[in-house]
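ARCHIVE CARD
Drawer: 12
Card no.: 0347
Subject: one protein chain, sequence and derived structure
Cross-reference: see card 0346
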Amino acid sequence: MGLLAASISKDLRRRLADPAAQLVWIALPIVFGGLMSFVVGGDGPAPKAHVLVVDEDRSLLSGLVTGAGGQGQLGQFLEIETVTAADGQAKIQAGKASALLIIPKGFQDGVLREQPTELTLITNPAQRILPGIIEEGLRMTIEAAFYAQRIFGASIRDIVADGSSATGFPTDDRVAGISRRINQTIQQLDGTLVPPVITVETRTDASPTANFQFGPLFMPGLLFMSLLFVAQSISADIWIEKEKGTLRRAMSTPQRLHVLLAAKIASAAALMLLVAVVAVVIGVIAFDVALVRVPGTVVWAAFAGTALLCYFLFLQMLGSSQRGANMLTTMVVFPAMMIGGAFFPFEIMPPGMAAVGRALPNGMAVTQTKALMFGQPEPGALLIAALVIGGLAIAAFLGCVSRLRGRFLVS
């Protein structure tokens, strides 16, 4: 035990001699979590399309077209600015707006009399999505005007004709006749539009991704993404000690090989524990992880992270050179992240791939971490995962001891 404690102390001092590297590893959960939450989104403002409007008609209908874009839900996506023709052309050419809409003189008269009229829309070629939304909205407005003419066209034309008469005011009988005709038209639409033939029923999807929650979906994977990188980096330390000769000198001491390796793994486990603590604290602060879940999650993550270190340490010793060993571990770490739920949550993977990922040791670790942090862990499943992960770690540890006794130091 004295030799084990001395070896652990030696490796801890070596790691503390490079505090910058330790801080980078500890900060990995914060960096990955911040980047992922930024990519996924949040509560930030929705993008708005800046639309310039040149109203040459200055009529009631053109004013309604301009005002409708800033009302209701459209107002969340559109910013309408009325400008002169010269200012509008200058701004759209300078790329200071998403689109320029020109409403020509005679627009209202043309629409009400169902005569050809033309709206000019100039979009910003530097933008793709927002101008497309504007163009589609304008097409929907044109379609609405077309169908309004099909239904109420005759009545609208009578109103326009009466408004352009010499007196400017229709007779009472004329008003009553137009009103009666509009009412009869609406009655004919009863059962088709009032109420509408097509109804919308809102249902809550019970699938795991129906109500997106960043914490339960991504947090366990981000934790093990950090642990995988830490395990890969720490495992490469065996080559540094080999090249500097300290590994050969340590093996010449009376301590057994398994004690030497156990000391290295134990010192690295302390760093795994710190990374797990940082990640779980982030979960408590940002995602309302219950405090009662913290101890179990931290212990489990540290245990699984230490097992990952054993796997990567064995892979490092399989390499014939440091460069080859680093290439080997890199070829393993990225597929392990992709399939094992660290990069993509199992909930959004194809079922077959998710089944394979959950069967991997790091996939089992991610699944049980999610249950410990946000769900209800099943003791049987947790025990099976612990036995598989721990058993493979013991096998990897024994493989490392065998490599130290064999060709590792002479390769």
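Annotation on reverse: DSSP finds 16 helices and four strands in the chain. Residues 129-163 form the longest helix (35 residues).
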